Amino acid sequence: MKVAVVDSNGKDTGRKVELSKDVFGIEPNNHAMYLDVKQYLANQRQGTHKAKERAEITGSTRKIKKQKGTGTARAGSIKSGLFKGGGRMFGPRPRNYSFKLNKNLKRLARKSALTVKANDKAIVVVEDLKFDAPKTKDFTSVLKNLGLENKKSLFVLGEPNNNVYLSSRNLKGTEVVNSSELSTYKIMNANSVVLFEGSLEEINTNLSK
């Protein structure tokens, strides 16, 4: 699949690049994408939630009423979750939500996500950007020229560029990542994936294994 290369002004440079079929033209595997997104979201959870259970509540241990003859249910402790101020039954406990996926499945998921975006014509290839200093105004101009204002967009760098990253950090809905930081969630969460020319070789190398 050939895609035209545009400059930061959104104008066609007259050049085209070939998107690898092994990365951008496979049969998408929806289940692999689901698992990779599920793992990404699970890893974002802190898992620090906690509620006091019956054994952790401060209160009397005496039996609050006789066992029989009251006409109501048995009750042995005021700390029961049935009573106000009692412990919570089966409450949340601190836990780790993360789980493992093998590298081949994660690689398949990312290739599937890129293929979906390529099929939807949602991939844009742009000449490498270079900013002399971090300026949000400059990056906003790039978004406007590419027609990506007020849209979720993911910019993929070939190599770390601090000025480009800092220029985009305050913009809602826009994220800049290195090619090594690509994830299925970030790809699918964006309306458009903007690949800088320098990132293509790195993406092919990482995902063609």
Automatic annotation (TrEMBL):
Any Pfam family hit: Ribosomal_L4
Highest taxon of the lineage: Bacteria
GO biological process: translation
SUPFAM superfamilies: Ribosomal protein L4 (SSF52166)
Signal peptide coordinates: none
Region ranges (Disordered): 46-77
MF term (GO), any: rRNA binding
Keyword check for RNA-binding: yes
Any single Gene Ontology cellular-component annotation: ribonucleoprotein complex
Keyword tags: Ribonucleoprotein, Ribosomal protein, RNA-binding, rRNA-binding
Subunit structure: Part of the 50S ribosomal subunit.
Annotated family: Belongs to the universal ribosomal protein uL4 family.
Function: One of the primary rRNA binding proteins, this protein initially binds near the 5'-end of the 23S rRNA. It is important during the early stages of 50S assembly. It makes multiple contacts with different domains of the 23S rRNA in the assembled 50S subunit and ribosome. Forms part of the polypeptide exit tunnel.
Stated name of the protein: Large ribosomal subunit protein uL4
Lineage, highest ranks first: Bacteria, Pseudomonadati, Bacteroidota, Flavobacteriia, Flavobacteriales
Gene label: rplD
